[in-house]
Amino acid sequence: MVIELHDICKSYLQGKEQVPVLHHIDLDVAEGEYLAIMGPSGSGKSTLMNIIGLLDQQTSGSYFFDGRDMTQCSDNQLSDIRNQKIGFVFQNFNLLPRQSVLENVALPLLYAGVRKKDRLVRAREMLERVGLAERVQFRPTQLSGGQKQRVAIARAMVSHPRLLLADEPTGALDTRSGEQIMELFHQLHAEGVTIVMITHEPEIAGHAERVVTIRDGRLENGSFSETEQEGETS
Ligand code: ADP
Ligand code: MG
Questions:
Q1: How far apart are CA 149 and CA 153, in angstroms?
Q2: Ligand 1 mean position to 199 CA, how many Å?
């Protein structure tokens, strides 16, 4: 398993009150799986993704990533794991506006200690793969939304992480650009990348191998065993 979440709860402190957001989440994601997490706005999707991506920590419950207990890791260890093993794609792209497309994609390799020449070669290769070879010297502001998201995917994948985490990756895009993003995800999945994609759109979720639903911070059909039992009774 790449991801094993067990009995995850998350609450936020608002004033003096603990406000619960995630309730007893159990979720396993196997190596190479393509999972969509669906749910309405405010249901806790981004909170869950931030925990999976080691950007935030659960209030209680256990999280094993790649077989390793994340509650036993220091902040430095967590950020190393995040940098080396997880690629992120967000709804609003999160590109640096003053840097070129090439520099944006090369940035994660700087943190990984790759030397400049190799960073630029690898960033260019990734940009070719997402169909933006002609745009490497552009600024993000000179690109369409769909092109920006393809830059973000190139940046997410340039250090070959084993997990791609995408939070509403098509949420800011028109249908056609969204389909191009889904096409890229299919290619990455075919190459063995594990993908967890968050969306509130059923058509987008339909691209994944497996769909789980979150409502009011509770996950439905999260573990394999529950899915199997449903299959047996139907
Ligand atoms: P989704 O991504 O499904 O729209 P979120 O995970 O962003 O939902 O938010 C779920 C709930 O948690 C919302 O009610 C939101 O207001 C609350 N929430 C999210 N982040 C925080 C925070 N940092 N502090 C307090 N409440 C938060
Ligand atoms: Mg969200």
A1: 6
A2: 15
pLDDT digits (tens, 9 = 90+) for 44-82: 999 999 999 999 999 999 999 999 999 999 999 999 999
Taken in order 134, 89, 38, 17, is the CA torsion positive or negative?
A: negative
Nearest CA to ligand 1 atom 7: 46
Give the nearest ligand 1 atom to 198 CA: 2
Nearest alpha carbon to residue 131 among 53, 184, 86: 184
88 phi and psi, to 5 degrees? -115, 140
The span from the CA of 113 to the CA of 209, in Å, is 35
Quote the ligand 1 centre to 156 CA distance (angstroms).
24
Q: Are 103 and 95 in contact (CB under 8 A)?
A: no
**pTM score, two decimals?**
0.92
Sorted by where each begins, the domain ranges of the chain are 3-98+161-233
Residue 233 has pLDDT above 50, yes or no: no
Ligand 1: nearest atom to the Cα of 214: 3
Identify whether the C-beta of residue 205 lies closer than 8 Å to the C-beta of residue 38: yes
Q: Which of 47, 90, 213 to mutate to test the pocket of ligand 1 (most atoms within 8 A of CB)?
A: 47
Residue having the nearest C-alpha atom to atom 24 of ligand 1: 12
Ligand nearest to the CA of 42: 1
Q: What amino acid occupies position 148? A: K
- 3-98+161-233: CATH superfamily: P-loop containing nucleotide triphosphate hydrolases (3.40.50.300)
